[in-house]
Automatic annotation (TrEMBL):
UniProt cross-references to InterPro entries, sorted A to Z: DH_E1, THDP-binding, Transketo_C/PFOR_II, Transketolase-like_Pyr-bd, Transketolase_C
Keyword Ribosomal protein: no
SUPFAM superfamilies assigned: Thiamin diphosphate-binding fold (THDP-binding), TK C-terminal domain-like
Superkingdom to which the source organism belongs: Bacteria
Any one Gene Ontology molecular-function term assigned to this protein's record: dihydrolipoyllysine-residue succinyltransferase activity
Protein name (database record): dihydrolipoyllysine-residue succinyltransferase
Cofactor: thiamine diphosphate
Residue intervals of the Transketolase-like pyrimidine-binding domain: 351-525
Chemical reaction(s) catalysed: N(6)-[(R)-lipoyl]-L-lysyl-[protein] + 2-oxoglutarate + H(+) = N(6)-[(R)-S(8)-succinyldihydrolipoyl]-L-lysyl-[protein] + CO2
Naturally occurring in which organism (per UniProt): Jiangella asiatica
Length: 671
């Protein structure tokens, strides 16, 4: 189905009705019958998952998408079938997706709430309320940075207005002057709650507060929605700034199929049914002189089309069990052999970790125009640690300051990555990941999988952590285990200047979402300067010191404490092999197990609290795959399970050091 805009923009109202309304009606009829058939299939247990229908809201979907080009974009909601169909997706593959079939829009990996096809400008329906709004900001940013005049229509319901993602996305769009139409389908209910019980401010007042334009439209009148959106989209396309549009409409079914709907009465539903968008359109067609028989022909054509679509979906195969792991991550490029940097080599003891961060960003910005950097104070301020100073001047428009809006920042990365760019965004402290966890957990990590590989997701989130300087419980946490537990995310934690440079460059080039976690206490650490083309393959550990008596595994700053402990123990004739993981996910199991096979003992040292951490995963690896090599219990050296303390005396007691590591190794080698 090809989506086209108004047939005759300059014609009069009657002419436009005659020319455009039959196609508008056709699209609304397609949505109505798709959803009615979906409801039937759900009741027959042919749709296995949740189903949220938008019957009664067809006019807002069709009218909003009417002026859009194929190159424009939408983001959608958990109630998004109508939006996807209105933007041009085909019913057959959507039915197959609802049924969990391999030929579904997302190869059966997404289901009703997660249909997407970035190639057709559909950047995802979304099971998280409001989550598509920050992603829309990323798509719009990609349009701007690549010189395209595309427009994004970001659909959301009235309930999403209460979500923080709405505030962050709308504010960022206003600050960056992004080409977005935020279209609220106000259907008067947020799940089971009436809209008047959820909000005290109107959308018009909110739009004014954000500095956005605002428009109201009867969301059940497709011609009115299309006429308004034609004007609004044209203005946004030509740089007049983002706009918030409120379409007043109503959903006939419950929040989900099977909803008992005890929260509204039959009289209210009857009043809204009397303003059926399809009947209103038929009346307009009759007034414009279109014969009822011609409209009936459209109904029959749609019925035949959807019957064929359902038959196609029923006949489609289910995904094979052997494809379970497909699309979790994209294949990584071969970076070639890693260059060995010997001590005392190029630029020894002059090159700092902070230099490596800046140089890696500089190198990738220079080499790849699809790379951009965004975050709080990364442009004018050059980052809170001065890591990005000068980059904004060197790359105008591609190093961008954001508001303090972590959800919007990571959402921009997700949307821009889906649109083909390679964003590098900064979360100032790792502790702040909680403020944007949905965009990492449910968006960046899952969208490639849930779209059956349709959504590219090459993005980097840079952040930093570090205990030991009385930064307190909310600025000291080592949360890599939290991130490592999310399938789809890559987690990198470098310990040297050369690795910081090589891993960050590799992360930016990687086709997967990568979180690069730096330790701020290492920013001044000096070491050998790598050559400009230096890359460190993701997922490959490094043996920092060879040994024969015990394997000591660590990462990030704790590697240096491990090396100091190994040096101390060498004077006691204990030979310690130190393994630096460098990448937490994917975990280099082979290097760890290979070292264990040589030494037969394993000690793990890390800065994160001990319980349920990466050290526990390594211990499990040792007692499963490496059990027959073990001559002693596996020992972990890590902080106890309390928040990081502020008082220096408590922090010293909490955070292990080289002496605690050495003591643990002595116990292990005595066994």
């Amino acid at each position: 189905m090809t989506v086209t805009g108004p047939a005759s923009p300059g014609a009069g109202t009657a002419d436009r009705a005659a020319a455009d309304l039959p196609e508008m009606y056709r699209r609304m009829r397609r949505i109505r019958r798709f959803e009615e058939r979906a409801s039937e299939l759900y009741r027959a247990t042919e749709v296995p998952g949740f189903l949220h229908l938008s019957i009664g809201q067809e006019a807002s979907a069709v009218g909003a998408c009417w002026p859009l080009r194929d190159s424009d974009a939408i983001t959608s909601t958990h109630r998004g079938h109508g939006h996807c169909l209105a933007k041009g997706l085909d019913a057959a593959s959507m039915f197959a997706e609802l049924m969990g079939r391999e030929s579904g829009t997302c190869r059966g990996r997404g289901g009703s709430m997660h249909i997407a096809d970035p190639g057709r400008g559909v950047y995802g329906a979304n099971g998280i309320v409001g989550a598509g709004l920050p992603i829309a900001g990323g798509v719009a940013t990609a349009f701007r940075l690549t010189g395209r005049d595309g427009v994004v229509v970001a659909f959301f319901g009235d309930g999403a207005v209460a979500a923080g993602a709405f505030h962050e996305a709308v504010n960022l769009a206003a600050v960056w002057d992004l080409p977005i139409v935020f279209l609220c389908e106000n259907n008067h209910y947020a799940e089971f709650s009436r809209v008047e019980d959820q909000h005290r401010a109107t959308l018009a007042a909110r739009a004014a507060g954000y500095g956005l334009g605002y428009e109201y439209v009867d969301g059940n009148d497709v011609a009115a929605v299309a006429a308004l959106m034609t004007t609004v989209v044209d203005g946004v396309r030509h740089g007049r700034g983002p706009v918030l549009v409120e379409a007043d409409t109503y959903r006939w079914h419950g929040h989900y199929e099977g909803d008992p709907e005890r929260y509204r009465d039959a009289a209210e539903l009857s009043r809204w049914r009397s303003r059926d968008p399809l009947e209103l359109a038929r009346n307009r067609l009759a007034a414009a002189g279109v014969a009822a028989e011609d409209v009936d022909d459209i109904d029959r054509e749609i019925e035949d089309e959807l019957a064929d679509a359902v038959a196609f979906a029923r006949a489609a195969p289910e995904p094979a069990a052997s494809t379970l792991a497909d699309f979790v991550t994209a294949p990584r490029p071969d970076t070639g052999p890693e260059e060995s940097l010997v001590a005392g080599g190029r630029g020894a003891n002059r090159y700092r970790v902070m230099d490596a961060v800046r140089d890696a960003l500089d190198q990738e910005l220079a080499l790849d125009p699809s790379v951009f950097v965004a975050g709080i104070d990364v442009a004018a301020g050059g980052n809170v640690f001065g890591l990005t100073r000068g980059l904004a001047e060197a790359y105008p428009g591609r190093v961008r300051d954001t508001p303090i809006s972590e959800t919007a920042i990571v959402g921009v990365a997700v949307g821009a990555a889906m649109a083909g760019l390679r964003p590098v965004v900064e979360i100032m402290y790792l502790d702040f990941v909680g403020a944007c966890f949905d965009q990492l957990l449910n968006q960046a990590a899952k969208l490639r999988f849930m779209t059956g590989g349709r959504a590219p997701m090459s993005l980097v989130v840079r952040t930093q952590f570090g205990a030991g300087r009385s930064s307190g419980s909310q600025h000291s946490q080592s949360l890599e285990a939290l991130l490592a537990h999310i399938p789809g995310l890559t987690v990198v934690m470098p310990s040297t200047p050369a690795d910081t440079y090589g891993l960050l460059r590799a992360a930016i080039r990687d086709p997967n979402p990568v979180v690069v976690v730096e330790n701020r206490l290492l920013y001044g650490l000096r070491g050998a300067k790598p050559p400009p083309d230096h890359l460190v393959p993701l997922g490959r550990a490094a043996i920092r010191r060879e040994g024969t008596d015990v394997t000591l595994v660590s990462w990030s700053r704790m590697v240096h404490e491990a090396l100091a402990a190994a040096e101390q123990l060498a004077e006691e004739d204990v030979s310690v092999e130190v393994v630096d993981l460098r990448t937490i996910v994917p975990l280099d199991r082979a290097t760890v197990l290979g070292s264990l096979a040589r030494t037969n003992r394993l000690v793990i040292a890390h800065e994160a609290v001990q319980d349920f951490g990466v050290g526990a995963e390594l211990a499990a690896l040792a007692v499963s795959d490496g059990f027959w090599h073990l001559d002693a219990p596996v020992v972990r050296v890590a902080p106890p399970p309390t928040p990081a303390p502020y008082a220096p005396s408590l922090e010293r007691a909490w955070l292990p050091d080289r002496h605690a590591i050495a003591a643990a190794i002595r116990e292990v080698v005595r066994v």
